[in-house]
Amino acid sequence: MKILIVSQTEKTAKAICDLVKKANSEACPFFCFSEAIARGMVLDEYYDLVIINSPLLDTNGFDLAHMIATTTQTQVLIIVKEEYFPFATTELQPVGVLAITKPIIFQYFEQMLYLTNFIKLKTDSLKRENFKLQNKLEEARIITKAKCLLVRTRNCSEEEAHHLLEKSAMNNRLSLKEVAMALLRRES
Q1: Do residues 178 and 184 touch, judged by C-beta distance below 8 A?
Q2: b/e per residue, 11-48, with b = 16+ CB within 10 A?
């Protein structure tokens, strides 16, 4: 798990790093100490998780958390003082940022890391499923377009057009989509 820790000082970054490694020995943490550098790092490279220890040297970190959550696939966990927790959850929770309060209690921190990993796995699974469904929809669209072309040019029913495509696919050992695409290319 590739993690970016954004903190005001090296000392707190290392303390958070120790917590991360205690919770997940396979984690690979990187550090930076300002929002500007963090923005560049996140845009240049993929991280599974960004942990922001608010406040930072140049800002409170809320804008950074919002930017990462809305423009990347990276999970974001922000650590805030207790008085800022209601604001953090109200402003950042809708875009998928998780918040935890200071002082950090290891048990809660570990649960948050587990939760961010679970969310990532679930999101990745949903993206794969969405990709499969989009491909099926595209395939159905191409096949339907080819059937409509056959109905127009060969004066046959939709069922007969489908049968012609299936027969051609079987005879040529191609998928229905490949046959439909070839037909559409020939006729265009």
Answers
A1: no
A2: ebbeebbebbeebbeebebebbbbbebbbebbeeeebb
Reduced to 3 states, what is the DSSP secondary structure of residue 124?
Answer: helix
Asked, for residue 166, whether it belongs to a domain, the answer is yes
Q: Give mean pLDDT, residues 110-114.
A: 90
Domain assignment present for residue 111? The answer is: no
Count of CA atoms in the C-beta half-sphere (13 A) of 48 = 18
Q: DSSP for 138-155?
A: HHHHHHHHHHHHHHHHH-
123 inside domain = no
The domain in which residue 86 lies consists of 2-104
pLDDT tens by residue, 69-82: 999 989 999 999 99
94 and 136 both lie in a single domain: no
